[in-house]
């Protein structure tokens, strides 16, 4: 109960400080890019030179006196010592929360002989608004007879799903040999700096009977897309429905995604959030909701959450306010507000629909990275057309601080449908926080 209360409180603190941090410039990116082209901002998640990860933990299922199994941390690397009181408390809260997200599907497990490993991720929001990402690989340990699955979870403040999936591949390969060979690999990884976009880091790792291996980990060139898999979204939803979801997210509504596989939930929700770039979802964000937090759907504030399909009936029975409920298994919307078709300006919506249909039809001809780039470009182009003139409506004072002229900004939009939409969008938290950052980010040369 105590950890549930903490999680609810912390997850709802995805407010101003968090988004301001996320909007700040990354390494070698001057803050004035906010005054440049729309879509050039980088997230603090992607700063190079940091540690790859904070913790590697193994979460196993332990049988309780009542016969049920509960997830418990059975291995932790590294063990932090000499922490200050506040740091110790924060670590304890984090380590208490992790098992719930590694086994969000409850404690109704039984020993099994076969299990297909799966990869998924979750996001935890700290009390100070900063975020940590948990990259998980759930697998069945090697052996004979019935046994229980376990989860290897890497906690990091860096968002790069593809890179951490490759790291988890190496962890799983070593787990089939011995837990003892995981430690030196993770130690080598921890001692290596997180590479800059497009760069590669090489990790040396010794495996008995195989000798020393060189493992190369390369970051994608486009940093803001390295935590995204748009193909996962396009494979499950039609372009038409994706635009309905995008429109609802832009107006910061409540969004619930349903699927049975944890990997599907986490991939698709990360993809939806990425469609908002260069804006940032500023509210409760739980790609995979543990059973103990299911009542999040009754929250009156905006949220974007993923829930396993087995809970559909329970979700539909809850006294929730208007929400968009998306079935990722069947590729359909179960419940809608009803105005999703009319939210976005007609002409811009049609352009995006044509672009998404083209990418969908050519899906087999493009790599995952190419699909990410093409889809992102379509949505960034939408924002450029809609709000690309924002910088010219920031009035700068002698002190260097800026003041956004909202009325003049909206009035400058010639299209009536675009202006009607913008009058709603400028009232959202994500737009307000974007502008707050822009008001602080005047290009120094302009002051000369």
From TrEMBL:
Keywords noted in UniProt: Guanine-nucleotide releasing factor
UDENN domain: residues covered: 54-445
InterPro entries registered for this protein in UniProt: cDENN_dom, dDENN_dom, DENN_C, DENN_domain_containing_2, Tripartite_DENN, uDENN_dom
Gene3D superfamilies per record: 3.30.450.200, 3.40.50.11500
One of the record's GO molecular function terms: guanyl-nucleotide exchange factor activity
A GO CC term attached to the entry: cytosol
Classification via Pfam families: dDENN, DENN, uDENN
UniProt-recorded name of the protein: DEN2D protein
Organism: Anthoscopus minutus (Southern penduline-tit)
Higher taxonomy: Eukaryota, Metazoa, Chordata, Craniata, Vertebrata
């Amino acid at each position: 109960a105590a950890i549930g209360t903490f999680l609810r409180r912390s997850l709802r603190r995805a407010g101003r400080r968090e988004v301001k941090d996320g909007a700040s410039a990354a390494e070698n990116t001057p803050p004035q890019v906010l005054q440049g082209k729309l879509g050039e901002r980088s997230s603090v998640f992607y700063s190079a030179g940091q540690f790859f990860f904070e913790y590697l933990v193994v979460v196993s299922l332990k049988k309780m006196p009542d016969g049920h199994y509960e997830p418990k941390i059975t291995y932790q690397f590294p063990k932090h010592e000499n922490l200050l009181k506040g740091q110790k408390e924060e670590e304890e809260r984090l380590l208490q929360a992790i098992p719930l997200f590694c086994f969000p599907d409850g404690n109704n497990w039984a020993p099994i002989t076969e299990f297909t490993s799966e990869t998924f991720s979750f996001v935890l929001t700290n009390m100070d608004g900063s975020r940590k990402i948990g990259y998980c690989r759930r697998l069945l340990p090697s052996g004979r007879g019935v046994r229980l699955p376990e989860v290897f979870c890497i906690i990091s403040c860096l968002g790069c799903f593809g890179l951490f999936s490759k790291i988890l591949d190496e962890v799983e390969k070593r787990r089939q040999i011995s837990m003892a060979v995981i430690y030196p690999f993770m130690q080598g990884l921890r001692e290596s700096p997180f590479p800059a976009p497009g760069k590669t880091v090489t990790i040396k790792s010794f495996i008995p009977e195989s000798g020393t291996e060189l493992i190369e980990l390369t970051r994608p060139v486009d940093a803001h897309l390295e935590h995204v898999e748009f193909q996962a979204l396009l494979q499950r939803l039609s372009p038409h429905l994706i635009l309905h979801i995008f429109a609802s997210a832009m107006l910061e509504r409540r969004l619930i995604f349903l699927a049975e596989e944890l990997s599907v939930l986490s991939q698709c929700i990360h993809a939806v959030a990425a469609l908002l770039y260069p804006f940032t979802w500023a509210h409760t964000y739980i790609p995979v909701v543990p059973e103990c937090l299911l009542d999040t759907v009754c929250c009156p504030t905006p949220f974007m959450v993923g829930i396993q399909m087995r809970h559909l009936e329970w979700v539909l029975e809850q006294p929730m306010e208007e929400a968009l409920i998306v079935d990722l298994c069947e590729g359909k919307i179960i419940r809608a507000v009803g105005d999703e078709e009319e939210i976005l300006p007609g002409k811009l919506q049609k352009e995006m629909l044509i672009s998404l249909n083209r990418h969908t039809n050519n899906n087999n001809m493009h790599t995952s990275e190419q699909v990410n780039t093409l889809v992102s470009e379509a949505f960034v182009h939408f924002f450029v057309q809609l709000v690309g003139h924002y910088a010219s409506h920031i009035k700068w004072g002698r002190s260097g601080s800026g003041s956004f002229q909202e009325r003049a900004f909206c009035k400058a939009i010639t299209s009536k449908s675009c202006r009607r939409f913008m009058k709603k969008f400028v009232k959202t938290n994500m737009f307000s926080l974007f502008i707050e950052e822009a008001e602080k980010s005047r290009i120094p040369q302009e002051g000369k």
